[in-house]
Design a protein that fits this description.
Blueprint: E1 15-17, H1 25-39, E2 44-48, H2 51-63, E3 74-76, H3 92-106, E4 112-116, H4 117-120, H5 127-132, E5 135-138, H6 145-154, E6 158-159, E7 168-172, E8 175-179, E9 187-192, E10 195-202, E11 209-212, E12 215-218, H7 228-241, H8 250-256, H9 278-281, E13 287-291, H10 294-312, H11 323-326, H12 330-337, E14 341-345, E15 355-356, H13 372-380, E16 384-389, H14 392-404, E17 410-411, H15 415-420, E18 425-429, E19 436-438, E20 445-449, H16 450-453, H17 472-477, E21 487-490, E22 494-505, E23 510-517, E24 523-527, E25 534-536, H18 554-582, H19 592-600, H20 608-622, E26 628-633, H21 639-652, E27 656-660, H22 664-677, E28 685-688, H23 694-706, E29 711-714, E30 728-734, H24 741-751, E31 755-760, H25 765-772, E32 777-781, E33 792-797, H26 800-812, E34 816-820, H27 827-837, E35 843-846, H28 852-863, E36 869-872, E37 885-890, H29 898-905, E38 916-921, H30 929-940, H31 947-958, H32 971-975, H33 977-992
Parallel strand pairs: 1-14, 2-4, 2-13, 3-4, 6-7, 13-14, 16-18, 16-20, 17-18, 26-31, 26-32, 27-29, 27-30, 28-29, 30-31, 33-38, 34-36, 34-37, 35-36, 37-38
Antiparallel strand pairs: 5-12, 7-8, 8-9, 9-10, 10-11, 15-19, 19-20, 21-22, 21-25, 22-23, 23-24
Helix pairs in contact: 1-2, 14-22, 18-33, 20-21, 29-31
């Protein structure tokens, strides 16, 4: 007699433990239970042992439910993503999502609530708070503008000039823009007098109105009130709970002034007479399902919270509430859950009445028929089988792979499609993390995922927020980073140090001057109206900048010397221009309609910089001149999309494309991305790397030679003599500076024949110099995708407590951690230390000396979240894109160069979650001057898109060298990078026109207009 799922649903007050589940069978069981409960008007509340399982169930449960009207409405109540007693607040998007979810639970708009166990322990605002601070606007109603402003401010909304994020509002005449918490879009309310005439949604990026709506729901802007009564009550309870003088605490004072301090959420009980728990929001007739070892998760959380409380409570200015005031104990939690119907689900190893694990069906590439295990299972199991790929691209790749070995499978689009089809075995796309066999009556089904097949994984997305296209020249000249003590170049007087702004009255009203100091303590005051003659000095370390003496003739001599070198360099450049112009390139032609269809499958809006780079590449490719373009964009800013568009134009133009990556991991990642994007197009893609078998490599080489393969992605293997192309038209090189000298020579030879597109995150100084001088065409992508947050970067002395806290902060929100340990000999010792320090973590090791199959499995497991800490060497420096990995810890960070630090840090922060980088050193106080400057530079460059600025810093720290030469010194150091560039540009322009260059031109005087009015910025 097999198990009956529906009969297992308990009555209120009862608990039922299901038989052991396997793989994603828990999601199947929960989806069936939720459908039954929904039919009865009841809700299912799922408590997951950890945030990772919560995220997994959020994507898996809806897949097992009907589409359209019968679809299950699933909500995740997210965690604050901070550790208990942290002194910073949760991100506004998380608060918005939490408030929206709580509102939906209260109003019966949620069928399945998913909440991680530790989040369910948090005491929260009572339901009456949410009801009392939620209000509606309807078209045709009267609205008092002054009262609305007061209401919004008290509800925690911020008054801004332009509304961009949840929790903001602005008022302009008769227009009110609002971005309600919990809303996907902001709203624009148009008043006629005091009547609401229209309400329309609008796009926060373009500020353009979209479509009309009848009403707007406005949730509170925070999870606590900030009106006068609430603040008074907060202060009163503070005095009752804490000893000592409250006026010494900044938090107490801030609340009195109407300011919500960072980390105020951990004082939330002081705002309310009584806090509520999750159980007061969930309807009484709901059923709870506990997935995984909830008790162990709660015990761990309490042990960590109590140790943090003991460690942090000594700070008198920031006294702490006891853990029991903020969180439920395990006893409280299970007591409050008792009146509800309860299901318990645990993963098992052995088959149960409900499900069984998938036996070994792994692809074995050593066999003549790699699918032997899979075929045997399909013949013997007697089940209908759905093989689940991660994406459309993966499905197509698998379909082609199976077809090569005569296994022809039909594709299906959904779970319902599979159920209604007569086919015994099908290929589908599903978010399932692990496969399982169902053992229920009438459900003789099996689900196999890529976890069991052991093939690639990949996915994911994020979305838009823009400004204008970045001006490269402005970035180089930028004075906004200027700090006191920084060297600057004055075109008339040479290199001095900036010592701040001062105001002086020279008889025509007060004017601001830059105070510059030169050698021998001489001073120069430059009016702000002459800022154009000043540029930041790059060329040597700021401390070693060669300061000039005013009036000594030293500066004139340096300029003359530089001018001689500039003439020679300019002549070389012109020679190169001439050779390039003489070469005939291929003018690609393509269908605009097809291109639009391909571009639409991107799924995001391009950033302005990205759009400009794509446009430049297409103009180059269709021009008939050979392309040699460098795309410099920060990690995760969308360089790959530029490469995809270029590849599309080339392939549709009848040419082959070669994509060259410095590491096997990056080649694998690109192969996955390209397969996904070209899934709907008649394009054949191959990969050449050590992850592929000898047979696969031989087939790929044959396909390139006979023209049946359109796009090949590989490592330096692509440059070997045995690889011959029948119609190569475009080469895309990722991170060229990571290739060896021999490979670079081979690439140089390629440049003579085909279009070349190079992608880089931090250009090495010489590459940057070449691009800026016009040796190579150059595009910068410096605008971040929307919702990407700057990475918080900390430099710390290495310590167990720092490592444990950093890892726990990430693991608590269901994320993953990179731990960088760049010594293969001692990496296993480090693993043992981490296992002792973090028993709750699943730690995997990856380094370049591992066998390729083993390394491939480790990386796939990490991407699939089967491990949550990757202890690795710099093998991860390029290419692996794991949006759930948002913390990186670097052991001996002082041993890395600036570009490498930036590249490694760029492995995290690839989603809208706050990312953290911990740069650990042996002793912060004992660092060398250079290491200190590198770590300071990377800390200051927290802003997104800073890779380009870091390259400029690299020019300063290492010295710029000659633009065309390899030596790391030169005239550039004497006069600074910017002035050298100006002189070189002038020389090239003159020689092109057949004139002798006048190298005083960039230094020439300009017209000055004196308006006799003060030139001052007010102090406030």
């Amino acid at each position: 007699m097999s198990f009956d799922l529906e009969k297992s649903l308990p009555k209120p007050g009862n608990r039922f433990a299901l038989p052991a589940v396997h793989g994603s069978a828990d999601a199947y069981a929960l989806a069936q239970a939720a459908r039954r409960l929904k039919a009865e008007g009841r809700m299912l509340a799922v408590v997951a042992a950890n945030a990772t399982d919560g995220q997994r169930l959020l994507s898996e449960i809806p897949w097992f439910s009907p589409q359209g009207d019968g679809a299950l409405r699933c909500n995740l109540l997210p965690d604050w993503e901070t550790l208990p007693y942290d002194a910073f607040s949760p991100h506004q998007d998380l608060v918005s999502e939490r408030l929206a979810t709580l509102y939906q639970i209260q109003h019966g708009e949620c069928d399945v609530l998913i909440v991680p166990a530790t989040t369910a322990l948090l005491r929260m605002a009572p339901p009456a708070f949410l009801a009392g601070y939620t209000f509606f606007f309807k078209q045709g109603e009267t609205l008092d503008e002054a009262r609305l402003k007061t209401q919004l401010t008290l509800a925690g909304y911020a008054h801004v000039t332009q509304v961009m994020s949840p929790g903001e509002y602005s008022v302009r005449g008769g227009l009110i823009d609002l971005f309600p918490m919990g809303s996907a879009l902001p709203y624009r309310i148009d008043l006629f007098g005091e009547t609401i005439e229209t309400i329309r949604t609008f796009d926060a990026d373009t500020q353009r109105s979209l479509y009309p709506v009848r009403e707007v729901r406005l949730l509170p802007g925070r999870e606590f009130p900030m009106d006068e009564a609430a603040r008074t009550a907060f202060r009163g309870r503070w005095r009752e709970v804490f000893e000592g003088d409250p006026s010494k605490s900044p938090i107490y004072k801030d609340i009195g002034n109407g300011i919500a301090s960072a980390g105020i959420e951990y004082y939330l009980p002081l705002f309310f007479e009584h806090t509520a728990t999750l159980f007061e929001y969930v309807p009484q007739e709901a059923m709870f399902a506990f997935v995984g070892d909830i008790e162990a998760a709660i015990r761990r959380f309490w042990a960590d919270t109590q140790s943090r409380y003991k460690f942090l409570k000594a700070d008198r200015d920031r006294p702490l509430l006891e853990p029991a005031a903020l969180f439920l104990t395990d006893e409280d939690f299970f007591t409050l859950a008792k009146p509800f119907a309860r299901w318990v689900l645990q993963q098992g190893d052995m088959p149960s009445e409900l499900s069984a694990p998938i036996p070994n069906i792994a692809v074995n590439r050593r066999l003549d028929d790699p699918l032997t295990n899979l075929r045997a299972y399909l013949l013997q199991s007697g089940k209908r089988v759905l093989i689940c790929a991660d994406s459309n691209g993966r499905r197509e790749t698998l379909q082609q792979y199976f077809a090569e070995f005569d296994l022809q499978l039909d594709a299906c689009d959904s779970y319902e499609d599979f159920l209604s089809s007569p086919a015994r075995t099908m290929l589908g796309v599903a978010p399932l993390q692990a496969g399982f066999e169902l053992l229920l009556d009438g459900q003789d089904l099996a689900f196999i995922t890529e976890t069991e097949l052991y093939a690639g994984t990949g996915r994911r997305a994020g979305r838009r927020k823009q400004e204008a296209v970045t001006q490269v020249e402005y970035m180089v000249r930028d004075l906004s980073e200027l700090k006191v003590g920084d060297p600057v170049v004055h075109v008339g007087h040479g290199i001095g140090r900036y010592h701040g702004l001062i105001s002086m009255d020279l008889g025509e009203g007060e004017t601001e001057f830059l105070h510059l100091e030169y050698a021998n303590d001489t001073k120069l005051y430059v009016p702000v109206s002459q800022l154009h003659v000043i540029s930041r000095y790059s060329g040597a370390s700021p401390d070693d900048a060669p300061l000039h003496s005013l009036g000594s003739g030293q500066w004139e001599k340096a300029k003359r010397k530089a001018a001689q070198q500039v003439r020679d360099t300019a002549a070389e450049l012109l020679n190169l221009y001439a050779r390039r112009a003489a070469r005939q390139g291929h003018a690609f032609q393509y269908s605009a309609r097809d291109y639009e269809a391909f571009a639409e499958s991107f799924g995001f809006d391009e950033t302005p910089d990205q759009a400009a780079a794509i446009n430049s590449v297409i103009v180059d490719m269709t021009s008939g001149k050979p392309m040699d373009r460098l795309i410099c964009g920060d990690v995760g800013f969308g360089k790959t999309e530029v490469a995809l568009r270029a590849a599309f134009v080339a392939v549709m133009g009848g040419k082959q494309v070669a994509i060259l990556a410095p590491t096997t991991l990056l080649a694998e990642q690109h192969a996955q991305t390209f397969a996904d994007r070209f899934a709907d197009w008649p394009v054949k893609i191959a990969e050449l790397s050590r992850f592929r078998t000898g047979k696969e490599v031989t087939q790929a080489i044959k396909g390139l030679a006979d023209g049946t393969i359109d796009i090949v992605i590989g490592t330096h293997k692509l440059l070997s003599n045995e690889v011959k192309f029948s119609r190569l038209g475009l080469v895309i090189i990722d991170e060229e500076h990571r290739f060896g000298v021999r490979q670079k020579e081979a690439l140089k030879a390629l440049r003579a024949e085909v279009d070349v597109l190079t992608l880089t995150a931090t250009p090495i100084p010489r590459t940057l110099g070449m691009a800026l001088e016009g040796l190579r065409d150059f595009s910068v992508i410096a605008t971040a995708p929307q919702k990407r947050l700057a990475i918080k970067t900390f430099v710390r002395s290495e310590d167990d407590s720092v490592i444990r806290e950093a890892c726990l902060r990430e693991l608590k929100r269901g994320g993953q951690v990179y731990f960088l340990h760049n010594e293969v000999e001692t990496i296993l010792n480090r693993k043992a230390m981490l296992e002792a320090l973090l028993p709750e973590a699943r730690i995997a090791v990856a380094h370049g000396q591992m066998h390729e199959r083993e390394l491939e499995k480790v990386m796939r497991d990490f991407v699939s979240q089967r491990s949550n800490i990757l202890l690795c060497t710099t093998i991860i420096e390029t290419g692996i894109d794991v949006p759930t990995a948002n913390t990186i810890i670097m052991h001996r960070a002082d041993k890395f160069g600036l570009a490498q630090l930036h590249q490694l840090r760029g492995r995290v922060g690839r989603s809208h979650h706050q990312a953290y980088a911990y740069l650990l050193v042996h002793d912060v106080t004992g660092l060398s001057k250079q290491a200190q400057r590198r770590l300071e530079a990377i800390q200051q460059m927290e802003e997104l898109g800073s890779g380009f600025y870091l390259a400029m810093h690299d020019l300063e720290i290492r010295g710029a060298g000659e633009v065309l030469g390899e030596n790391q010194s030169g005239e550039m150091q004497e006069i600074g990078f910017q002035l050298y560039s100006d002189m070189l540009n002038e020389a090239v322009r003159s020689l092109k026109n057949g004139k002798e260059p006048d190298l005083a031109a960039p230094l020439s005087t300009t017209t000055e207009i004196n308006l006799h009015v003060p030139a001052l910025l007010p102090q406030d």
